[in-house]
Amino acid sequence: MNAPDLDVLVKVQRRPVPPAFLDALAQRFGDRCSRAQAVREQHGRDESPFDVPPPDAVVFCESTRDVADAVKLAAQHAVPIIPFGVGSSLEGHLLAVQGGITLDLQRMNQVLRINAEDLTATVQPGVTRKQLNEAVKHLGLFFPIDPGADASLGGMAATRASGTNAVRYGTMRENVLALEVVTAAGEVIRTGTRAKKSSAGYDLTRLFVGSEGTLGVITEVSLKLYPLPEAISAAICHFPSVAAAVDTTIAVIQMGVPIARVELLDANAVRAVNKHDKLALRETPMLLMEFHGSDAGVAEQATTVQGIASEHGGEAFQWASTPEERTRLWTARHRAYFAGMAANPGCRTVTTDACVPISRLAEAIAESVREADESGLSYYIVGHVGDGNYHVAYLVDPKNGAQFDTAERLNLRLVQRALRLEGTCTGEHGVGLHKQGFLVDETGEGGVEMMRTVKRALDPLNILNPGKIFSL
Amino acid sequence: MNAPDLDVLVKVQRRPVPPAFLDALAQRFGDRCSRAQAVREQHGRDESPFDVPPPDAVVFCESTRDVADAVKLAAQHAVPIIPFGVGSSLEGHLLAVQGGITLDLQRMNQVLRINAEDLTATVQPGVTRKQLNEAVKHLGLFFPIDPGADASLGGMAATRASGTNAVRYGTMRENVLALEVVTAAGEVIRTGTRAKKSSAGYDLTRLFVGSEGTLGVITEVSLKLYPLPEAISAAICHFPSVAAAVDTTIAVIQMGVPIARVELLDANAVRAVNKHDKLALRETPMLLMEFHGSDAGVAEQATTVQGIASEHGGEAFQWASTPEERTRLWTARHRAYFAGMAANPGCRTVTTDACVPISRLAEAIAESVREADESGLSYYIVGHVGDGNYHVAYLVDPKNGAQFDTAERLNLRLVQRALRLEGTCTGEHGVGLHKQGFLVDETGEGGVEMMRTVKRALDPLNILNPGKIFSL
Predict the structure, then answer these.
(1) Higher-confidence residue: B296 or A460?
(2) H or E segment to which residue A304 belongs
(3) How far apart (Å, rounded) are the C-alpha atoms in residues B429 and B435?
(4) Residue A78: helix, strand or coil by DSSP?
(5) Is any Cβ of chain B less than 8 angstroms from the Cβ of A196?
(6) Which of A159, A201, A310, B8 is deepest in the core (most CB within 10 A)?
């Protein structure tokens, strides 16, 4: 088992960026190519706790042609390229560890087509999930994938994101129909059609979903949409222990209840969101749930779940049926990350992301709680527990190396346990810089070597987000 | 647009099979390596209409080690390897167009593990879908993917199969959790864990699902299972025209009804199954539907669908709620392929497999019906219409070249139309030998070249089912 060695992971191995390349870039993009320190620094970090010098330049792309031209120039000079959406990565995906240029795709923010009758939409990569939902709301449709942050859909595809609705609607893996991608040679390909299913050759769409910018730059995303449910109801339920909340979730999933969301917050997380969002939730472990369906279906699901929760000591089952109440609760949940940091001013968050088969979830979380309590670190736990996915967020003082080391030691043990329980080191955040050793432990040298072989074949100059997922 | 040129596609380019290789194979596998003409011929064809000389030998594998050893020997001598399940491919996937050896995996038929509490199972590749369903039935679980044939699960993964339940439960793309694969070098890798979701590096699982044996030999499959629904109800409904049945389906899908199966049979298909299965179905276009859920949920869905069907002229809505009635109807549906051939003794079937966005389905099918009627060929239509996927099966006399040519010309026009309507040339059968030109039309040279690049990188000697999906 390879513990993340932060010194190794963030070792900067900058590659030369020839002046001729920067000149050509400036000529092609004019003032949409910036070398200003502030712009570079803004693009040189994400939500990960790593500090790395920023990229050499930032290009603001406005079209697929822009991306293709930038990549072609980069290929001519073997300069690294990093695609950038809104910068919400948690694992260092966006950091310029080998230098090079960042392609800011935020201006590629057009919803290109909505095919309501087919429940599909095609968007540029800079469109965020909230923007897409605004655009389709009047049609009675929604896009369910919700990682918390208002991330760009290109970035969500690139990290195979998921979040709160995945237990019912799947992840980006299931919800991307097709992509347009700029290859390492600057060519533009399409990876699929708008058909709901296909057996036409290799699944290039799924090869790019989760490839973290290392195989191509995503320039269009075709997505599935869903009819807004006739009825939506949210509920919270408090539990005497994290274990009781987890056992309730396991029973709900094993019964086959089509619950739309089932989120765990431990007492620490509840405390943080209470303070940050001025709520008055009882500060015990809780589940925040949502039910989608017909009126009768939602009532049926809710009755089943309420019964299961009661059997496990759940109490104070509270309904939030108005959109306003629901929004308030889910906003609080989504702010847990920032609430945690706000409760510990100046800290950074080291987040774990294990996902295990549902039957192993109770064991996985119980041990994580015990170890976190013993460590003395500030922490909280949130989880998309219906999927077996949970996050222990350790809050560490960036100046305190011992705290970082403790957090990483806990992370290592948590991942070791998840793998032993037949789970994965990352349910939804991706590998980035942080989990490269874990990936080897999980997939084996043979599997990672296969990934490297694909990477070398499709990006022989190693210019596409180099240094991420694995070292070459 | 490239029409399939059968002469080119089935041009046999046999590669040398050195006597030393066959000796080594015989030594390693003894009488589990057969060169008997009958055994070779049995493995030298599938359900496609192509005639190709059989492989040079057949090896009956009983373990992953067997597969790995066979592949290693083949790699030493650059001899082609073709994995074989039950031989139900429709597109020539199993034909030895470059000679070499077939690995018969039917003896690898163990259900290795059932994790009922996680709704997962791990099986060897020779386990068939019916066998798996028998093995999990007593646990109240089922595996929904149902391509009609009692195919092997390894083969279903390799072709990204789907079938009647896909409209609700997805395809093999969504239902394979992880694979064990023997690579072109004879090494064994695992592509994932039993976690429900993961962002751990490239999606090797999805790279192998649908790769048709060209990237590795699948030796284990981990799959999702589902709780048997509390209530299941099937219904048939007759329509005045194929268009009315299709329009009903479109409305049902667009309303978001979670229908489990919705199958179209045109009057020709109904006639064939009536005769073959001694049924007395009214010989008009019909939908065969199934609803899964709670008692209340099934009733709700059925009421909605019945209302929609009536609006489109559907009548004689008949329920089949007992398992026996349901089985009789679904068995008849599944036998449509053989019923069609039985109605035309001595014929072969040329099957199309287009899949289009649901809003384009009416147009796609209407034109196909018109062209088929005009052609004078015997044909019938069945379709997983809830997914936008339909099959026109042309019944041709294998000795009548003109009929074959007509069928292929219709196939070409049908695919051209599907692509124009933003669909795919193959919803579930795969590319095999037959659709290689269509794949280029659909994905573009750039996309196919990317597939070739991946293939060359992972199988540099081109020993894994060579000549399928694309030419190198």
Answers:
(1) A460
(2) helix A295-311
(3) 10
(4) coil
(5) yes
(6) A201
Q: How far is B40 from chain A (nearest CA, A)?
A: 27
Please give the domain boundaries of chain B with CATH numbers for all domains: 6-107 (3.30.43.10), 111-227 (3.30.465.10), 231-420 (3.40.462.10)
Q: Is the CB of A450 inside 8 Å of chain B's CB atoms? A: yes
Tens digit of each residue's pLDDT (9 = 90 or more) over B231-270: 999 999 999 999 999 999 999 998 889 999 999 999 999 9
B445 touches chain A (CB under 8 A): no
How far is it, in rounded angstroms, from Cα B347 to Cα B341? 6
B150 at the A interface (CB within 8 A)? no
Per the model's pLDDT, the better-predicted residue between A51 and B290 turns out to be B290
Of A187, A446, A457, the CB nearest to B189: A446
Mutate to test the interface with A, among B115, B162, B202 (most CBs of A within 10 A): B202
Taking only the tens place, the pLDDT of each residue in B3-29 is 455 555 566 789 999 999 999 999 999
Nearest CA among B94, B110, B122, B132 for reference residue B190: B122
Determine whether the interchain pair A173/B203 forms a contact, defined as Cβ–Cβ distance below 8 Å: yes
Looking at every residue in chain A, the average pLDDT score rounds to 94
pLDDT at residue B380 above 60?
Answer: yes
DSSP state of B19: H
Which residues of chain A does B140 touch, with a Cβ-Cβ cutoff of 8 Å?
A: none
Tokens of A400: 């305190």
Task: Give the whole-angstrom CA distance, residue A402 versus residue A411.
Answer: 14
ipTM of predicted assembly, 2 dp: 0.96
The residues in A 156-185 lying below 8 A from B, measured between CB atoms, are 159-162, 166, 170-171, 173-174, 183
Q: How many CA atoms are closer than 13 Å to the CA of A306, on its beta-carbon side?
A: 15
Cβ within 8 Å, pair B424-A200:
yes
Q: Cα dist. A461→A71, A96, A157 in Å?
A: 12, 16, 23
Locate A311 and state its tokens: 């059997």
Answer whether A174 sits within 8 Å of B170, measured CB to CB: yes
Q: What is the maximum alpha-carbon separation in chain B? A: 70
From residue B210, how far is each of A23, B216, B217, B468 by CA, in Å? 45, 11, 12, 12
Integer Cα distance of B309 and B312 in angstroms: 5
Give mean pLDDT, residues A23-35: 98
A256: left (phi over 0), alpha (psi -120 to 50) or beta: left
SS3 B374: helix
Q: What percent of chain A has pLDDT over 70?
A: 98
Runs of H (alpha helix) within B335-435: 336-342, 361-375, 401-420
User: At residue B321, does pLDDT exceed 80?
Assistant: no
Contact assessment for residue B347 and residue B395, using Cβ atoms and an 8 Å cutoff: yes
DSSP annotation string for B43-112? TS--SSS---PPPSEEEE--SHHHHHHHHHHHHHHT--EEEESSS--SSSTT--TT--EEEE-TT---EE
Contact call for residues A270 and A228 (beta carbons, < 8 A): no
**Structure letter (DSSP) for residue A346:** T
Q: Which residue of B has its CA nearest to A166?
A: B197
Report d(CA A87, CA A75) in Å as an integer: 24
> What's the rounded Cα separation, in Å, for the pair B413 and B433?
18
How many angstroms separate the CA atoms of A197 and B246, rounded? 18
3-state SS class at B436: helix
Tokens 């869905």 — which residue? B301
- pLDDT of A145-185, one tens digit each? 999 999 999 999 999 999 999 999 999 999 999 999 999 99
* Residue B299 token pair: 């009733």
Neighbours of B288 (CB within 10 A): 23
Sheet holding A231-238, edge to edge: A315-320, A231-238, A286-293, A261-265, A378-384, A389-396, A348-351
Touching B: A residues 368-407, CB under 8 Å: 387-389
HSE toward the beta carbon, residue A134, CA cutoff 13 A: 8
